[in-house]
Amino acid sequence: MKGFSIKTEIEEFDTFEQFAKYIKLGADDLVLCGEHTYNDYVLSLNTGVQTLFREKYSKGEPTDGDVDAILDALRDKKYDRIIAIGGGTVIDIAKVVAVAGHDDKVDDLYDNVENLKKVHPLIIIPTTCGTGSEVTNISVINRVSKGVKMGLASDAMLPDKAVLITDLLSSLPYKIFATSSIDAMVHSVESFLSPNGCSISRVFSTEALKIIITCWDKAVSEGGGDAWNKYAKDFLKASNFAGLGFGYAGCAAVHACAYPLGSVYHIPHGQSNQLMFASVMKKYKELQPQGRINDLEEVIAKTLNVSQDKALEALYELMDNVLKSEPLKEFGVKESDLPVFAKDVAATQLRLLKNNYIPLSEEQLLEIYKAAF
Fold first, then answer.
1. Which of 128, 324, 360, 369 has its CA at a distance of 20 to 30 angstroms from the CA of residue 339?
2. In whole angstroms, what is the distance from residue 312 CA to residue 293 CA?
3. Closest alpha carbon to 122 in 153, 156, 154
4. Residues paired with residue 142 on neighbouring β-strands, in sequence order
């Protein structure tokens, strides 16, 4: 078993200005973010940084074409550190940029993943409370040219610093909060159940899950909507903890089954996970009701003050109160898509499926899709 280690330095600041002064942000740095983020937090500091605004190249989750265009735009720029400020899309792009050689394209990185080297120091500042990617070595790109959404994983992509600044969550729209926090919850559950976890990784997975569902429960009881804001610091911390958990133990079938929903129907990543979550968990319970899943039920039961046999249903209900789930068909998914999705997941998402609570066949994956349909 590999040893558990935290290779990314994790820092906390109250404001972006404090962080910028601390690292002496300046002209040798490239800030990769959304233009509104730059205008809100960076522009007034007059640091002279170089910039790349991701919406000029990608408005959704990153595709190979988007990232290739970004790499082309950066080929003749001279910069040292990359400071990525954003959600999952910005972070995924920044990790690729950090390891790309002068002439590389996305396909070159996938083809040469074993030999990737970090070209630029990488500092990541998340602006959502879901990705956890600020402490992982994974970037997920929709490889449109290959017809599949795939993770690129290399220790060369581990950020040098992860910086948590709660203030950057202050303008987060409710739906992005909801989908990102659901993503973090799924990270914590999948890494908790993963056979590739260890006692230390499960500490982070457990604490992340407890924090998220406790704060969800409080926010819902306080009327929902912007009530989550008072718990923003907790959600950000929980997302980071979940990242540490799945960075070691991995995500599994929920993420694997969610990927086609994002790549084909452009359903936001966290919401895609929500649509598949209950169906995957129910299949797990059907096939192997005794095991680590009972430990998970115990954690949920104690946190939500329900009986253990009602724990998972209570979690599904709480998630629905955060963001209402719907059948896949309500998002335009066709029944004829389901066997195609199941076959593709079984063939292309082995990196994730090896972390399942129990192995799932292509037929069982199809049953999961049908249950969610």
1. 324
2. 10
3. 156
4. 63, 149
| Predicted TM-score of the model (pTM) | 0.93
pLDDT digits (tens, 9 = 90+) for 296-317: 999 999 999 999 999 999 999 9
HSE-up of residue 192 (Cα within 13 Å, Cβ side): 27
**pLDDT value at 1 more than 70:** no
Which residues partner with 33 through β-bridges? 53, 85
pLDDT tens per residue across span 216-239: 999 999 999 999 999 999 999 999
Dist. CA 362–CA 4, nearest whole Å? 32
Q: Is 292 exposed, middle or buried (0-12, 13-18, 19+ CB in 10 A)?
A: middle
- pLDDT by residue (tens digit) across 251-297? 999 999 999 999 899 999 999 999 999 999 999 999 999 999 999 99
DSSP state of 126: E
What one-letter code names the amino acid at 312? L
* Helix H or strand E encompassing 138: strand 138-143
* Distance from C-alpha of 97 to C-alpha of 82, rounded to nearest angstrom: 8
Angle between helices 253-265 and 337-348 (to 10 degrees): 120
Indicate the angle between helix axes 269-287 and 253-265, nearest 10 degrees: 140
CA 139 – CA 21 distance, rounded (Å): 29
Question: How many CB atoms are closer than 10 A to CB 160?
Answer: 16
* Cα–Cα distance list, 238 to 131, 160, 323 (Å): 10, 20, 18
Minimal CA–CA distance to 168: which of 15, 331, 358?
15
Q: Two tokens at 349?
A: 């998402």
Residues 6+ apart with CB under 8 A from 150: 110, 140, 141, 143, 259, 348, 349
